[in-house]
Amino acid sequence: MGGLGGRRKDGTFVVPTDADDHTLVEAAKSGDRRAFQLLFERYERKVYAVAHGFLRNPEDALDVVQDAFIKVYRYLPNFEGQSSFYTWLYRITANLCIDHLRRNTRKKDVEFDDRIRHDGDAESSPVDALPASILGSPGEAVENKEILAAVEDSLKYLSDKHRAVIVMRELQGLSYADMAKAMGCSKGTIMSRLFHARRNMQKLLRERLEHLPEPSEDDGAEGLQTEAALP
Amino acid sequence: MNHDSDIPTQAADLQAFFDGELDEASAERMAETIDRDPELRQHLDQMAVMRDLVGRSMEMRAAEVPRARFEQIWDEIDRSISQDASRPTAAPASFWQRVWAAFQPFRMPALAAAGAAAVALVALQMGSPEPVNEPPTVASVPKTAEPTPRDVQAPAPTPAPNPPAIAESFPSPPAAEAEIHGIEFGGKQGRISQTGVVTVLYVEEDTSAQKSERSL
Q: Integer distance in angstroms from the first to the last C-alpha of chain B?
């Protein structure tokens, strides 16, 4: 824990703004509203990113952020710290998003079933390979906002279930068991869903990136070429 | 690792390896396999790139939300927490409250059963041959003939052709001297067969008499 705390006039301890999660959680448990606000400020955008990843709607995502932190505060006395605070927070967020999706089931322009494959069977993975321009040095590639916009657009065309597993795994880092619990299905179903979601995402992204102009040497294109590039 | 049947085993293992879901021994074997197979290495790289891109695209979207919007959200959260805190906390339930709560699922059936029992009891009472808690009757006051349900249901008794006269209920006393000034008997005339000093002991209708006042 960094930073220095202090004591208020009433003798209560002032938690420093850079205190670790555990310290803030314990302070919030004892009624320190400021400590809980620090937790909120620390994770507000991460929780929003997850919620927006699930729901694709800014206002719905903000509603989930609000509901998630209210729920966290109410159940804080029951949080025993067996998992990290953010894992617990992400689980609550994921559950709220899944509930929201169940309540607002809507049809999409493109609805993928778990088992739909877009390029032959599952063995033909190389067909879905991403363009070489974004492989090998993603840190530089993602500086290009067009690529990120293409990723966002691809996510939009995934089914709710596929997008849910992508967000839970790639952004939240939830285990298969946690994902299965959140979605009310077996681990095997999660594995299958994740496998097909990744393939669909790869295909959608490839289709969008093919229309992007090749980066020139001036903007660091040489750094994007890699021996991992696929044919 | 259990594999879903619709995923090729190697692809499933590769995915589980990438997601850190393999046990240590399986992960070591998979790593060796990947080292020997450039195609598997490519798949692994693709998944890593995808994860990075997805994460960054979502974080980019979150970064677009102005700080003031999150401050508004915090105000809502703070208000909600304050409302929760201002609510009076419920006192711990007493033993009987807990018992009452435990029987909550049975309350409605029990209420229905009690109602049915009450209706049955009332029906039984109305059909009972001996009235319960009937007030004691006074000998000098004739009872009003209030028909009971049983009376209504039971076949009407055949009426006696001539109800016995009161005179037949008592033995005729021996005749003795009496002085009487007059008598009215249900609007009819009659005679006194025996008198005491002032008390009339016996009255009998005399169908042959024509006058209301006569000497005995």
A: 131
Higher pLDDT, B66 or A132: B66
Chain B residues closer than 8 Å to A37 by CB? 74, 78
State the residue for tokens 């530089």: A140
- A-B contacts (CB, under 8 Å): 147
| Of B55, B62, B80, Cβ closest to residue A48 | B62
Bridge partners, B146 (sequence order): none
DSSP letter, residue B172? P
Residue-wise pLDDT for B97-106, tens only, equals 777 777 676 7
3-class DSSP assignment, residue B188? strand
pLDDT score recorded for residue B130: 53
pLDDT digits (tens, 9 = 90+) for B12-59: 999 999 999 999 999 999 999 999 999 999 999 989 999 999 998 888
For the residues of chain A, what is the DSSP string, one character each?
--S--EE-TTSPEEPPTT--HHHHHHHHHTT-HHHHHHHHHHHHHHHHHHHHHHH--HHHHHHHHHHHHHHHHHHGGG--SSS-HHHHHHHHHHHHHHHHHHHT----SS---TT--SSSSTT-GGGGPPPGGGSS-HHHHTT-HHHHHHHHHHHHTS-HHHHHHHIIIIIS---HHHHHHHHTS-HHHHHHHHHHHHHHHHHHHHHHHTTSPPPPGGGTGGGG--TT---
A221-224 long-range contacts, Cβ below 8 Å, gap at least 24?
Answer: A221/A133, A223/A137, A223/A140, A224/A132, A224/A133, A224/A134, A224/A135, A224/A136, A224/A137, A224/A140, A224/A141
Distance (Å, whole) CA A200 – CA A125: 11
pTM of the model: 0.59
Q: Which residues of A touch B84 (CB under 8 A)?
A: 73-74
Cβ contacts of B54 on chain A, cutoff 8 Å:
53, 151, 155, 166-167, 170-171, 201
The complex's ipTM works out to 0.73
Of B19, B50, B58, the CB nearest to A202: B50
- b/e map A11-21, b = 16+ CB within 10 Å: eeeebbeebeb
pLDDT tens sequence across B103-158: 676 777 778 888 888 888 888 887 655 544 545 444 444 444 454 444 444 444 55
- pLDDT tens for A71-101 read 999 999 989 888 889 889 998 999 999 999 8
